[in-house]
Amino acid sequence: MRRTRVCASAVALVFSCAASAQQTPVVDDYDVIYAPAMVAPEATTAVLTEIDATTERAVAVGDYGVIVTRDKNSSEWQQAEVPTSVFLTSVDFANQDIGWAVGHHGVILKTTDGGLTWQRQLDGFAYIELQISFFETYVNELESRLANDNLDAEQEADLEFMLDEALFQLDNAVFAQEEGPTKPFLDVLALSKDELYVSGAYGALLYSNDGGESWQIHDTRVENPDGFHLNALQSDGEMLYLAGEAGQLFRSDDAGASWDVLDSPYYGSFFGMHVDQQKRLWIYGLRGNIFVSDDQGLSFTQLKLDDPVNINTAIDAPDNGLYFVGNAGVVAYLSATGELQERTHQSGAALTDMVINADGQLTLVGQRGVLSMPSFALTEKE
Amino acid sequence: MSEQQVATATDKSVFLERLIFNFRPFWVVLFALLTVFLGWHASQVRPEASLTKMIPTNHPFIQNYFEHRDDLASLGNVVRIAVETTDETIFTAEFQKTLQEITDEVFFIPGVDRAGLKSIWTPNVRWSEVTEEGFVGGPVIPDNWDASQQSLEQLRTNVLRSGEVGNLVANNFQSALIYVPLNEVNPDTGEPLDYQAFSEQLEERIRDKYQSDNVKIHITGFAKIIGDLIEGAMQVGLFFLLAIIITLVMLFAYSRCWRSSFAVLSCSIIAVIWQLGIIKLIGSGINPYSMLVPFLVFAIGVSHGVQIINAMSGNRVDGHDRVMSSRLAFRALYIAGLTALVSDAIGFTTLMVIDIEVIQELAIAASIGVAVVVLTNLGLLPIIMSYTGISEGGRKYSERVRNESHPVLTLFERFSQPKWAYSALLVALVGLTWGLVQGQQLKIGDLDAGAPELRPDSRYNLDNKFIVDNYSSSTDIFVVMAKTAPSQCIAYDNLEVMDRFSWHMENTPGVQDVKSVVYVAKMGGFGLNEGNLKWFSLNRNQYVLNANTGRTPPGLINPDCSMAPIIIYLNDHKAETLKTVVSAVDDFNARYQQEGLELLMAAGNSGIEAATNSVIEAAQYKMLLWVYGVVIVLVFITFRSLRTVACIVLPLALTTIMSQGLMATLGIGVKVATLPVIALGVGIGVDYGIYIYAKIKEGLEQGMHLDECYKYALDNTGKAVGFTGLTLAIGVATWIFSPIKFQADMGILLTFMFLWNMLGALILIPALARLFASFGKK
């Protein structure tokens, strides 16, 4: 789409465009990380995983490096220029211009023009190098601490356990140099134009404080010895939250320097977290399970949908209610007064995220790309 | 007749004539024996519809397809039976009972791959969901099924969870599907599947038995198409009877003599019997395309037979006896007849340039048929007539009409006069313009939805439409074969390129959906990670990929994992759609060259059609060039004048162009069935021109004026040309009513061409001759 737009805009470019179409270079070492996303007329039908709205436009990411944008007050989707074709899993904007998208194969992308063009900041091969150097340093540090004579037996046992873990991670990273990056990133949280967190599979946690120029590995700050997937990141402005596979739930009150394990209300996996206008924390996951906390994650109340499907996202509705979307086309609405209604999108496809448009229509994304349905309030009026 | 007359007649006899007439009893016995022998063989001929013969087997697509045919077999050969209820929903006890019974019945039909049989009543159809402990699931039919309301509710829930809505259950819940894979070869006997028998079983044991006011049955699948094709082809046998009856009536109207009418009819039928017997002997068969040939042979036989009895009755009127009349008729006609038949045969032979077996079989069968007509209607018919003679009534009738000028002929005679000639040419010019303008819209390939072999409103295509409308499946399938080294078909690097290819194709206009093992692998990632869609991706870890592809359905990878079909579902099978798809695949292959991976076109019905279209498109002009080249050379050799060539060939060209316009107007594409029609039309059409111009030339040589020449030609051959045109047209016109769409298309076009060529010869040849003559003067 973008290419055609550029070509059409300037007559002088017509010839060069025609020429560039002629001389398509042969690709004999295809790697999904470095192949620019294909210009795709059907981009909005790709599997899409998340959608985020800035003041200017809605931006959705998904399969084949597809990023599509829809300007405020428009119904047309445009495909953004993206220098990778990996499966993107998450997108988050710090402000109307700056945002990040992350995905499989260790890819992190940044935009500075509100989502129209994207640059690669990290890829899986660089991430592996980062892991190796981090775990080498960490192993050295643990070894020197172990060399200290003043340790008691328990401290020594702890350190040895940590060292084993670190060596295991280091081995993995060294092996991955051969195999290539296999760990997907699963969520990105932009705290400001400089600070952001990225979480991923097998306990991956990355942090940057320079807008993604450099990255720190924070895996070891989270007590996750089984290497469970870290599916979701959230912030209420005061606390940071991290949730994942098998009921993993963590909280940080020092901006991520250290993470506390919270008492999890559930042993199944969480797929997302949401902080509503009243600063309540919502976490949700497998089999229609939704939990809400009024005390920053210390205690939870449970809500359960009729349909035992995965709940993937919750967002605020304009009337203080909440929408949830999940697999099998489930869209649920929880009114401010606590009534829960469920509907199923006719496609029956897994839904992963949504935004509410000014006209009351819901824009849903998921397995079948961009879909829409009228908001519950809209259909009740009729 | 006096001794002297016979002697004179005998003196002028040629060798061929003596050979025939001096040994009449011998020939009669020989012909009778041969007819019995070949008739016995002809009775063994069965209509067949072999896919391989209908496709261009030397095209690279087809070669690739053949190379992987065994691996692709399980993919395509499936019958779908939709059981529809007229009630609100399928979730009623009564409907479920019927569905269960039908499923059981299908299970026992020979040819069904029982392990692969699927309906919501087979135990292999399961629902599943992700729980904290992993997957749970079970068969869609609840274990404690008792047809109660509660059971039905449970069933509905299970169906929704099973993901079968759109597959085994219609999107509107008013029908359910039984998916019936077939064994190409019977595993017990090793015999190949008899499609026709299978199709009949489906009709008897399923449709006839279970279709009622409340339950409708819809059946689709390749086996059903073939079954319906053969069944439809059988009906064509009835058309042959019809053609015989109409011809007999016409023959009698023409000759007013039952004896000669039956003689011509018998000889022509003998020609058909011989032709069928010979193709059986040479190991060839009869297919829905070459079924046209007996009709043509019959019609050609009749048209030449008419010339013989026409000449004979003339001779009888002149007072010759039976034998002498017959000899004289033979003597007068054998050269003209041979020339015309040879030109027919050569016209048919040009079809051999098209590399599609059914067309070549048709060409061979038609050439054999024409050769046979030479023997039966130029050889046997005069012998028979020398015994039977012309009846008294026939003789009198022909004596009477000889002295009258037929009103229709009088009308045609005017076209040699300038005013009429130029008006006719003007009309021809209008026709030409129409043909050229309309012909621009002429499309290659099949244009209708569903099975293009059958009529759009045939039961099969209505069933097909029902299934396409109510289920999420396209029936236009283009398969690209991803070929790798053994055990590399799900290697990460290969899958990644195949994934990009799938996305490339999904973004190609006309493509609905793309499915392959890549999709299975990505769905596996999604499913095995607790139904988290953020894992819908390929992983570089081969163990993970192997686990994710663990549930690959058979057919999506071959046993040694060296080939994985990529199935591209299309909106339709129009030629442009197929071309776009082919060039999109070519573009991708030019760009991405992964070592150890080849993306080969093409299988699936649309892949095969793409190959056929490209062969047809290339052959279209080649064939026209050949057939016109041959005709021009032949006419030039006969008349040694370029002006004559123009007079004879231009009306033919007009017919060709106008029939292309007609095809475009009627929405008939250029395809395996219609391409040969042009050659047949031109090959036979040129006969008229040759006959008429031969007589005009004869008149000119005798110093007649052009108008007189034309009158002379019309008096001598006009009636025969008219009769021939009508006989040929009637023989093929019965095809218009064929249940098989392409046979109907062939019927329409051939009828049009035979009639129009006849009119062209009768009207435009004198008009053109007039035009050239006036040029000559200036």
From TrEMBL, chain A:
Keywords: Photosynthesis, Photosystem II, Signal. The gene is hcf136_2. It comes from Pseudidiomarina piscicola. This is Ycf48-like protein. One of its GO terms (cellular component) is photosystem II. One of its GO terms (biological process) is photosynthesis. Residues 1-21 form the signal peptide. SUPFAM superfamilies: Oligoxyloglucan reducing end-specific cellobiohydrolase. PANTHER family: PHOTOSYSTEM II STABILITY/ASSEMBLY FACTOR HCF136, CHLOROPLASTIC (PTHR47199), PHOTOSYSTEM II STABILITY_ASSEMBLY FACTOR HCF136, CHLOROPLASTIC (PTHR47199:SF2). Residues 72-123, 185-262 form the Photosynthesis system II assembly factor Ycf48/Hcf136-like domain.
From TrEMBL, chain B:
The keyword Transmembrane applies. It is a multi-pass membrane protein. InterPro entries: MMPL_dom, Mycobact_MmpL, SSD. It comes from the Bacteria. The chain crosses the membrane at residues 21-40, 236-255, 262-283, 289-311, 332-356, 362-390, 420-437, 623-639, 646-668, 674-694, 720-740, 746-773. The gene is ydfJ. Pfam families: MMPL (PF03176). Its main location: membrane. Keywords: Cell membrane, Membrane, Transmembrane, Transmembrane helix. This is Membrane protein YdfJ. It is found in: Cell membrane. The lineage of its organism: Bacteria, Pseudomonadati, Pseudomonadota, Gammaproteobacteria, Alteromonadales. One of its GO terms (cellular component) is plasma membrane. Residues 261-387 form the SSD domain.
